[in-house]
Amino acid sequence: MPNKGRLHEPTMELLERAGLHVERTADRQLYADTVDPEVTVLFARAADIPEYVRDGAADLGVTGLDQAHESGAVVEATGDGSEASTAGGEDADGAALVDLVDLGYGRCRLVLAAPEDGDITEIDDVDGRTVATEFPNVTRSFFDSRGIAPDIVEVTGATELTPHVEMADAIVDITSTGTTLKVNRLAVIADVLESSVRLFARANVVDDPKVGQVATAFESVVAAEGKRYLMMNVPTSRLEAVKDVIPGMGGPTVMDIAGENGEDESGQVAVHAVVDERRVFEVITDLKAVGASDILVTEIERLVE
Ligand SMILES: Nc1ncnc2c1ncn2[C@@H]1O[C@H](COP(=O)(O)OP(=O)(O)OP(=O)(O)O)[C@@H](O)[C@H]1O
Ligand SMILES: O=P(O)(O)OC[C@H]1O[C@H](OP(=O)(O)OP(=O)(O)O)[C@H](O)[C@@H]1O
Ligand SMILES: [Mg+2]
């Protein structure tokens, strides 16, 4: 997993929520045990993680899809039936990376951009010009597949500066909010790649049961994201109206409320349901209107579907 930078914290949080508590003793420690004796965590640069996994130094890796492509790996999709895709050149040693789970964070686009008021307005204009990037392999294969041959200059950061100091005519760089491009007066010419952080495995470990367990645990955290758990009391006579308000995932769970003798004396049932967090406000208003009371809203840590 990433040792620093923007991907470090969310990845640590993901491991915690997935139940894989990391037992780290020092801040700069580069490997650590987890509560699972079969799972050890290595901390490396986001850009190096695909190489660790392809080499077999690690079996699984958490990093951006952009980094996987830049490493030159063949990236195979799983689970969603989509075709395996390749970018960034051939996988010489045959060590493909399997994209197991889209973890949802680090969402960004790799784009071709050029000065707003310059003479580059479409991809073809870049032919014979200079493009600066932190992603030379992805950039080269993007232009190769279009029969365009710019000079590619590799930089390690602050790429947006290069067109203003005559180092490059255009750039291929990451954008998410678009702020950095805008303040540097650069316009998007074309999309190169969409990326987010993924759980990758080396192809030859995909069938390992432990790899499956980690993937399922990570998936359950992603599935719980943006969901809330609602608990409430409902008069039996109002149950159907409440069910109409919360269609939920396979409908709500309905339980008897035990009275003193273990019998339902209140004429009420307890109803539990999973609701999209964006709908919570609206759903609570509707639930109260149809007679629900004592409504509790809680976060969901994991959701194993
Ligand atoms: N602005 C951004 N928004 C969303 N995701 C991003 C953004 N910048 C980078 N990423 C994702 O994070 C990955 C790691 O980025 P990078 O290697 O630049 O590390 P960093 O966390 O930005 O740290 P630093 O730039 O200080 O080395 C990228 O490959 C990309 O997948
Ligand atoms: O569209 P925005 O929201 O502005 O984000 C895009 C910027 O974020 C990243 O930079 P980062 O802060 O990681 O610095 P770096 O260039 O040194 O990696 C990326 O390289 C872009 O410069
Ligand atoms: Mg960065």
List keywords for this structure.
305 residues, alpha+beta, D-Maltodextrin-Binding Protein, domain 2, Alpha-Beta Plaits, 3 domains, five-stranded mixed sheet, 8 helices, 23% helix, globular, binds adenosine-5'-triphosphate, binds 1-O-pyrophosphono-5-O-phosphono-alpha-D-ribofuranose, binds magnesium ion, ATP_PRibTrfase_HisG, magnesium, ATP phosphoribosyltransferase, glycosyltransferase
Topology:
Blueprint: H1 8-17, E1 22-23, E2 31-34, E3 40-42, H2 49-55, E4 60-64, H3 65-70, E5 74-77, E6 85-86, E7 97-102, E8 108-115, E9 130-133, H4 136-144, E10 151-154, E11 170-175, H5 179-183, E12 186-195, E13 197-202, H6 209-224, E14 227-235, H7 239-245, E15 253-256, E16 268-276, H8 280-289, E17 293-299
Bound molecules: adenosine-5'-triphosphate, 1-O-pyrophosphono-5-O-phosphono-alpha-D-ribofuranose and magnesium ion (MG).
GO molecular function: ATP binding; ATP phosphoribosyltransferase activity; magnesium ion binding
Protein name: ATP phosphoribosyltransferase
Subcellular location: Cytoplasm
